[in-house]
Amino acid sequence: MRNLAGMAVTLWLGVMAFFAFVVAPAAFATLEREAAGRFVGAVFPRYYAAGMVLGLVALAGLAGSRLLGGGRPSDWLPLLLVVVMLALTFYAWVVVLPAAHAAREAMRRAPAEGVAAAAERFAGLHRRSGILNAAVMLAGVVFVALQAARRR
């Protein structure tokens, strides 16, 4: 069961890395900025949903390992890391993403004098999203490293 958790978190990291380092840069390199933003904005709900599903699979794998007697008292850290990853992903999905969409819409619809304020709000939300995603990735890397160290 612990392998299930490791595979789920590793796949989650792969999805995140592929999106961050391949999909988003390719979109902004080949499409007009607004079209790229719309494309990436359309992908994000699925991106977060995939993270939630993989995180729940990892959580189930860790819980199953514990229930089957394969868990050790020190297994609280991987569990905590997955819970943190899920919580940050959920927050980014249900709080930050809708607010960023609203800020981007406000930028498009605002009168000229209101665009700067809407752009500043969007930039702050975009920064927060990046920080949240980086924290999820870091927690995932620590999780995978812990799992690898325990196999030795």
What can you tell me about this protein's structure?
This protein has helices at residues 2-30, 33-67, 76-109, 112-151. The mean pLDDT is 91. It is elongated. It has one domain. It has 152 residues and is mainly α. It has 4 helices and no strands.
Tell me the overall shape: elongated
Structural class: mainly alpha
Largest sheet geometry = none
How far from one another are the termini? 17 Å
Total strand count, please?
Answer: 0
Taking all Cα atoms into account, the compactness measure Rg is 18 Å
Question: Helical region count?
Answer: 4
The percentage helix is over 70%
List the domain count as a whole number: 1
How large is the share of residues in beta strands? under 5%
* Uncertain ranges: none
Q: Give the H and E element order.
A: HHHH
**Mean pLDDT across residues:** 91
